[in-house]
Amino acid sequence: MTEGATIYIPRDTRVTSRNTNRPMTIVLVFSKPGFEEYLRDTSVREGEPATPMSAEERARSLEKNAWHTLYEQTQR
Question: Shortest CA distance to 40 belongs to which of 60, 18, 16?
């Protein structure tokens, strides 16, 4: 990716990005309303420490947001 790039990602495609040397802004656009609620549930406010969600918090978030979001199960 280069500065000012627009990237279109097909449905069901996993993408990762690594930025190692300067600030980067990412804007995501989703066609189905509601995903922003999941992002709010799983994010922290700027300047606040990022702490892991408890198992109960994650379960509540997944249940609340399951109607509009597909979660891929991964092996760890």
Answer: 60
Helix axes 35-42, 55-65, angle to 10 degrees: 170
Nearest residue to 5 via CA among 32, 17, 67, 52? 17
Q: What digits encode the pLDDT tens for the residues 5-23? A: 777 777 677 777 777 788 8
Dihedral (CA of 70, 64, 73, 57) sign:
positive
Q: What is the pTM of this model?
A: 0.44
CA–CA distance, 8 with 23 (Å, rounded to integer): 21
Neighbouring CB atoms inside 10 A of 64's CB total: 13
